[in-house]
Amino acid sequence: MDVQFTDREIDVMQVLWERGPSLVAEVRASLEDALAYTTVLTVLRTLEAKGHVGHEEEGRGHRYFARVKQQAAQESALRHVTRKLFNGSAELLLTQLVSDKNLGPEALQRMRRLLADHAKHRPDEEEG
């Protein structure tokens, strides 16, 4: 499934992933940007129309919840970036990440372990 969000939608989804089901006012209060209630409601309704959010009635309002798991959104975004900016090459993406000067030795060590674990689970595939 390809899941794509605008920056504003990501901000709202992040609130739902962190807080869980939330009223519009709760989402609004959790956002870093001071948005109008109607703006937050519009974003939630747009996300619902896309199938990424659902809601349950609660009193006079609605409690919105994420229908898309954060990990699924991350994987989809990464596939999209890899396809669009790195010609579909995970190797080019990884090279860019590793060459980032902000990576500390602990992060690099964790990446080495992940790559080693990945290689152990795929022994029949050729390197390349």
Q: Main β-sheet, in a few words?
A: 3 strands, antiparallel
Taken in chain order, the helices and strands follow as HEHHEEHHH
Task: Just give the CATH class of the largest domain.
Answer: Mainly Alpha
Q: How many helices in DSSP terms?
A: 6
Provide the low-confidence segments as ranges.
none
Task: Name the CATH superfamily assignment of the largest domain.
Answer: Winged helix-like DNA-binding domain superfamily/Winged helix DNA-binding domain
Distance between the termini: 27 Å
- State the CATH architecture of the largest domain: Orthogonal Bundle
The overall number of domains is: 2
Question: How many β-strand runs?
Answer: 3
Structural class: mainly alpha
Beta-strand portion reads: 5-15%
Mean of the pLDDT scores? 89
CATH topology of the largest domain: Arc Repressor Mutant, subunit A
Major sheet strand order: 1-3-2
Compute the CA-based radius of gyration: 19 Å
Shape field: elongated
What helical percentage do the residues reach?
55-70%
Could you name the key traits of this structure?
three-stranded antiparallel sheet; Arc Repressor Mutant, subunit A; elongated; 128 residues
What does this structure look like?
- With 128 residues, this protein is mostly helical.
- It has two domains: 7-66, Winged helix-like DNA-binding domain superfamily/Winged helix DNA-binding domain (Arc Repressor Mutant, subunit A, Orthogonal Bundle); 89-128.
- The chain contains six helices and three strands; from the N terminus they run αβααββααα.
- The chain has helices at residues 7-19, 24-30, 37-49, 70-85, 90-99, 105-121; strands spanning 22-23, 53-58, 61-66.
- A hairpin with a 2-residue loop joins β2 and β3.
- α2 crosses α3.
- It is elongated.
